[in-house]
Automatic annotation (TrEMBL):
SMART domains from the UniProt entry: AAA (SM00382)
The organism's place on the tree of life at top rank: Bacteria
Record keyword rRNA-binding present: no
Transmembrane segments: none
A Pfam family reported for this protein in Swiss-Prot or TrEMBL: ABC_tran
Gene Ontology molecular function, alphabetical: ATP binding
Keywords from the UniProt entry: ATP-binding, Nucleotide-binding, Transport
Native species: Stakelama flava
Domain (ABC transporter) ranges: 5-234
Name assigned to this protein: ABC transporter ATP-binding protein
Length: 312
């Protein structure tokens, strides 16, 4: 799978001295769904703005399908579609005109059949002649997606697309993304709905304080960093973990009614058998065991917490 978008040493420092991005290197594969995860203020929107030409980088180069995003701005930008967080549209134009106008801005010939299908895919067909000011917030979000897709871009950026939208729109949007992916569109999204990234993405990047901490295949990341947890449900609650159990990574949960053991499922020795033998020796009776895998959210929170601790 070849690279359609490449960032090399991309940084952004504002006049105030704030460093929003720190020398980001990233290659996006053609046709993949890439999820960029990070807390508020991590640099996600800045990164997207730099690629899409709304923010000027301080350093580095961006190549979009062979075009330098600065020197060859027009052909590079024509490859990109952006669905921003903010609802920014002309409130007095119709839904159809908004999409047709956006298509024309990129020099694409009129294609009524394509726009009609887009309106139907986004459940906007019945609203096609309505002025934007007449629409609900969710409907306006659908129009933004339609604007971004009107010129048939090869790369679609979705900046927090699910934030503040209803469940129906979220479901429709993800169905549309699945169809776009089948057609070969490359999709890059930022999201706080980590479960959606976990379900949809091929690869995941984690960014914090302007630094890209890692980029991994989703499954490889979860296998490499994901831990398992075992909850040991106790017959009688504990006030504290006995010192004799210090060799295991244990925490008290449920007001002392449960011992939680975090372990590496890939390790040769998990420590579970020895722990379960040790508990009765200490007079600690248990009635049940529950295990679960770490989610992508657990991994993300752990990575960001580690970075904060190292910076402290």
């Amino acid at each position: 799978m070849d690279t359609i978008l490449s960032l090399a040493g991309v940084g952004k420092t504002y006049k105030s001295g704030h460093q929003a991005l720190r020398s980001v290197d990233l290659n996006i594969r053609r046709g993949e769904i890439f999820a960029l995860l990070g807390p508020n203020g991590a640099g996600k929107t800045t990164l997207i703005g730099i690629v899409c030409g709304t923010i000027s980088p301080t350093s580095g180069t961006i190549t979009v399908d062979g075009h330098d995003a600065v020197r060859d701005y027009r052909p590079a930008r024509a490859k990109l579609g952006l669905v921003p967080q903010e609802l920014s549209t002309d409130q007095f134009t119709s839904v159809r005109h908004t999409m047709e106008f956006s298509r024309g801005l990129f020099g694409r010939a009129p294609d009524r059949a394509y726009i009609d299908q887009l309106l139907k895919d986004l459940a906007l067909w019945d609203k096609r002649d309505n002025k934007l000011r007449e629409l609900s917030g969710g409907m306006k979000r659908r129009v933004l997606i339609g604007k971004a897709l009107a010129h048939e871009p090869d790369i679609l950026f979705l900046d927090e697309p699910s934030a503040g939208v209803d469940v129906s729109l979220r479901r429709d949007m993800w169905r549309l993304i699945a169809r776009l992916r089948e057609r070969g569109t490359t999709i890059i999204l930022t999201t706080h709905y980590i479960e959606e990234a976990e379900e949809m993405a091929d690869r995941v990047g984690v960014i914090s304080k302007g630094e890209l901490l890692l980029v991994e295949e989703k499954q490889a990341l979860m296998k490499k960093l994901g831990k398992r947890e075992m909850d040991i449900l106790l017959v009688e609650p504990l006030a504290a973990i006995p010192p004799e159990l210090s060799e295991w990574d244990l925490s008290l949960e449920e007001e002392g009614h449960s011992l939680r053991y975090a372990f590496d499922a890939q390790a040769e020795h998990t420590g579970i058998p020895s722990l379960l033998r040790k508990l009765p020796e200490l007079g600690i009776a248990f009635k049940d065991l529950e295990t679960r895998k770490s989610s992508l959210e657990d991994i993300f929170v752990g990575l960001v917490s580690d970075q904060r601790e190292q910076a402290a």
